[in-house]
Amino acid sequence: MRGLFEDNSVWEKTLKEASNSLLPSQMRSLFVNILIHGSTQNCVIDSLSLWEMFKEHMIDKRNCTDAVKLRRIDRALAIIERYLFANGKQMKDYRLPLPSNSLTDDPNKAVDEFFFPTHLNDDDVDETVDTSFEKAKLNPEQENFYKLVLDAVIDPNSKNRLFFLSGDGGTGKTFLLNFLLFNLRRLGNKVLATASTGIASTKFYAGGMTLHSAFRLGINNEPDRIPSIPVQSYFGRRIIESNLIIVDEITMLEKTVLENVDKLCRIMVPKNQHLPFAGKVVIISGDWKQSLPVVKNSRSPEAQVAVCLQSSNLYSMFEKTRLTQNMRLQPSEIQFKEWLYKLGTDTSGDKIAIPKSMIVESREELIEFVFDKGFDIPSSDMLKRLMLTPLNRSVDLNNSIVLSSFNTESMDYYSIDKCTNENPLSPYAADSDVAGLNKLTPAGIPAHHLHLKVGSIIVLLRNLNTSKSLCNGTRLIVKKLQTNLISAETICGSNTGMTIGISRVCNSYVDERPDGVSFERFQFPFVKLLQ
What we know:
- This protein has a 6-stranded parallel beta sheet with strand order 3-2-4-5-1-6. Strands 13-12-11-10-16 form a 5-stranded antiparallel beta sheet.
- The protein is an alpha/beta fold.
- It has helices at about 10-20, 25-35, 45-55, 65-85, 105-115, 140-155, 175-185, 200, 210-215, 235-240, 255-270, 300-305, 335-345, 365-370, 390-405, 435-440, and strands at about 160-165, 190-195, 210, 245-250, 280-285, 320-325, 410-415, 415-420, 450-455, 455-460, 475-480, 485-490, 500, 505-510, 520-525, 525-530.
- It folds into 3 domains: about 1-115, no CATH class; about 140-325, Rossmann fold (3-Layer(aba) Sandwich), CATH 3.40.50; about 365-530, no CATH class.
- Helices cover about 30% and strands about 15% of the residues.
């Protein structure tokens, strides 16, 4: 098994399995994910060899004369290049041939392609443009905010250029941001649409990405660690040329993240370095009653408050708009909404009374209430049901109970773990105590053992392709299980219903404590959940 770390054979087997069931567009996406996420510390993928072996499975072979075949191969390379560019990679990094009219040869085209993507697929993907925002109507609150932002984007000398949009769930924050995104792009403006997390970025109708990815921010956001981005680079040009920057779910970010974005904008546009964010129009959006920043190794509420954006000098510079008109609340939900609002604003008094209708007496009663008694197969209705729990062990127990009712095909997948530091768990092991590594499941790392059934709902732990809503937090339902490939269908985000092939990837964990153990886990990048 350990040999899988050392050669190309696992990827040949993976792509061979995929070629028997996946469409060309799905093969291209899988190929790129293998290139970006498959390499380990001791094994670099032979990308060119894999391309030559499977390139004909990445094109539409219908009505394919020799001349048409060459054009389609060239187009497949162009699509692969676009995916790599979006992840900060280039074809030369993998020794792959360049397509004609390569983005590498034309930086302007690469930046324009990012802001105003052209659809290169000509075979099996429905690339329809969302026109629902053309006929959409705003309520008065939304209309007022839209005009404020539009005026700021059109007039570079406008006084108000920083906006904070807040409101309870259901008041239309995401809809309004998408309305702005659609209409400003239609007017030729370059909008950088970002969010604090990958799953939040999928709420944008098109072109969403994480703030960290857009601004090349590292995991640690110390005030003096500003990323170095060349002005004329692809990432630098994107920042410089943007007319509007959107950051959704801002309340989850530490203040240093936005402060570093501010500093980076000033560096990239030195003529405006005296202005916040170099004079760019910026919208931040969120709800303070929802998730706040996570402070590692701290249980103090004061520690959370200290790192929140409200503690930053930048916060006072933003013009605040709060949406209050709930656009999706049903009459039967009004009482619950009021109770939830009091809970979120700490206006319920010293004691919180939970309505009896929300209380169950046992785990079995809860599962029966959520999923109905007697279900035996996964259904689309189940995708709308979920249970929330703060502990992973509770998730595993609940899932095992529910999944035991599924009479579907199952398969077990075991990871290959390898220590990557010089501090092995056992002094008697040659390079690491593998059995000890198998027992570890740090946050963000998939388990050593995954037991899956067709119909299992899984959650991605990696950002595979945010433009296709494949990111950390994306939920999918398992459709087919193979030895080296899992086919699944997305059930959330802007590409709901899309089928993809998922391979194993290299999941790296670094424990920075002096006696910590760092390791690589070669495993499928998700956790299994029934939610």
